[in-house]
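Hi Prof. W.,

I finally got the Protein MAIN-LIKE 1-like prediction working! I wasn't sure whether to trim anything, so I left the full sequence exactly as given:
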Amino acid sequence: MTLEDVAVILGLLINGLPVTGVTISSFKGLKAECLHQFEVALRKSDCRGSFIKLTWIRDLKECLQLIGKNSIQRYVKCHIMSLFGTILFGDKSGASVHWKFLPLLRDFSSIGQYNWGSACVAHLYRALCRASRIDYTEIDGPLTLLLAWAWIRLPYLALIPRERRSFSLANRWRNWERRDRRYRYLSLAHFKKLLDDLQEGQFV
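And this is what came out:
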């Protein structure tokens, strides 16, 4: 997996401002940040430690009336946080997103200048490292990226009919099961054996 793969598959920027900052775990800081950016106070029941429940973000997004610049920006920030919690930096629950990303969204004009691609692939490698432990049975992280990469680089695993290239390539996964349902019923052991039997020339 390379940065080029991330750029092609997800269409993310792979150069730009570093995605970094200080992680604050206090609820007071989280509440103040949400009030500043969304003009809505967060309740303790709407978060799980340092994680904001995605249900709160989705409900807020649905309630926003897009009648001005500020409300549109808040709507976009809600959508970005939802993407962070589900596609780019999701945890195993898939139900929350860490609020450490919120400060990076303060300056709306700078959001698109961050190196989200590098942060995403770093998060994936960290997740893969954890999943390799013998006592781990699950994996989190940007699995859409991983699956799309495997679909491109290991075509013998899933011989799904190829379409003309479109960007981002992750769109290829949309509704793919409607065309070829048989892959939905293959077991994990089946794919593990295919990887174990990988031959030279089968990796693109």
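The chain has a mean pLDDT of 83. Does that look reasonable to you?

Thanks,
D.
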